[in-house]
TrEMBL record:
The protein's name: Probable transporter MCH1
Residues covered by region (Disordered): 1-39
InterPro entries to which the protein is assigned, alphabetical: MFS, MFS_trans_sf
Compartment(s) of residence: Vacuole membrane
One Gene Ontology cellular component annotation held by this UniProt entry: fungal-type vacuole membrane
Alphabetized SUPFAM superfamilies for the sequence: MFS general substrate transporter
Membrane-traversing stretches: 50-73, 85-105, 117-137, 157-180, 192-211, 231-252, 433-456, 462-490, 497-517, 549-567
Amino acid sequence: MATASPSDQTLVPLLRSPSTSTLGPASSTNSLRDASPDPMRRRKTRFLQILSFVSAVLSALCAGSITVFSLYAPRFQSRLHFSQFQINGIASAMSLSMYIPVPLIGYLCDRVGPGPLSLLAVVLLAGGYGSAAALYHKGEVASRTAGPDSSQGLVPYMIVAFVLIGVGTASMYLGSITTCAKNFGKSKYRGLILTAPMASFGLSGILVSQFGSHFLYEVLPDGSRGEVNVFYFFIFLAILLSVAGLFGSVALRIIDEDDLIDGAVEELERSGLLDGSELFRRTTSGRTYGAIDGAIDNAEDAGILGPLKDDEDDEDNALLKKTWLLNAETRRFLTDHTMWWFALGFWLIIGPGEAFINNLGTIIGTLYSPGATDDNTTAATHVSIVAATSTVARLLTGSLSDLVSPTPQNQYPQTGMNSQILPPRRRCTVSRAILMLIAGLLLSIGTLILASGFIQGHGDRFWLVSGFIGAGYGAVFSLTPILVTIIWGVENFGTNFGIVAVFPAIGSTMWGLIYSADYQNGARNSPSVTDGADDDVFCYGQQCYSSTFWAMTASIWVGCFMILWAWKGRDGWTKRGVVI
């Protein structure tokens, strides 16, 4: 480690707090137990940590209600007389709004914290579901009194409502997983802890769909229970998410964030990437390794560091240091070519899963002949199956990643030189990349079964499709943020994961449109429910979906190859010495 010259001493307050030495022992920032010798402070830190974890799980549990779109989407078709293209337009707008703003949301979360994001989510979700409830009620009344076509003008407004729902969900969900990633990045069970809010997000589908089906249902003329009452269901979600968001605005916080930033600077200094005034400068050999594979410009090039004034206080210095570090890590993340292979693979794998979940209800409707009513399976049943298998898969993969996968010694970005492995708890280790590939193949089994026509006319077999797709989808979504934290560190997690999370929106929209075109084309050759019914609205038979799901299967396999290339390909993670 080179010694800084006297002229470089002005950088010291910015690089580390007065209480943290970059030449101190490696364990100085490795555990919350070592954060302070004061027992009272340690207990308070632990309490705040647990409170933030509980709030994160609760926020994710409520935010996952967005996954039950298939529960009420068929009602848009039957009650409001929206076409399949219009329904997929609403679903696509929801998906896009849930993913496209995520880099900005993650950027804000890293810099202002998850609490303000949770408060923003309250406004968006309450407004979105409240507006959707009012629009649905208005459209239902109009369809009954003025004819089926009278509700068509509500489609643009419904799209706006679901855009608000998507952005609000993203804010609440990303705030919850960012809280867990940063607060528990030092834990040896960080994979399982990070998986907890993600599993809760999946579990929400079971709880919300079953609650809606059993307590918020319509009463049929004979007094029996009908489908979910969409108006009351939307009102319920608006209230539930408002309560969870208000609690999160107070309880979601990053504990000892200054120590996290100090530790990142310390680790980079220890790795040889921080040398005197040449901050994150290229090593003398001209090459670095790992997920950070290039040099970070010096402080002056970053446009943030400047001559420090004698009267600057520690808070201002800490803010400048944090901003500089996060901006530098964002640049390195975007210029890492393995990130792009990984993100593209994630897009090709998760897009078919997203489209299946959004269109599950209409897919089930294609399995039976017109007028068939005996033992028909329901969308609510399979929304619950997808949610259950997704939840189990998330918890299982999170646990396996802790127990059988190699783990680096700290939570900071891996540079090859700092990628030492913690003592293994098992003799045999399995890379997280292998777990990711297995998850993708599970998802492809579900799409392959559906594409083959094995389910057509046999709704009792549909659990195979929803089970495999739910398990694969949940495992992929669990492993993706874990890999982001393992390879690129936790201090800039919100921004990094937000960038990767944009890609499912593209996949969901693309496959939703492809499925809609396939469905509408098949509808022209499908019999109607009754004479004179609109054959351009309903579709029956294998021709409604088969081509789409064959293409989805191929997409998933290509996505798996891309992740394999990021891992084992030219200058991939293995070649760089990255521990995954």
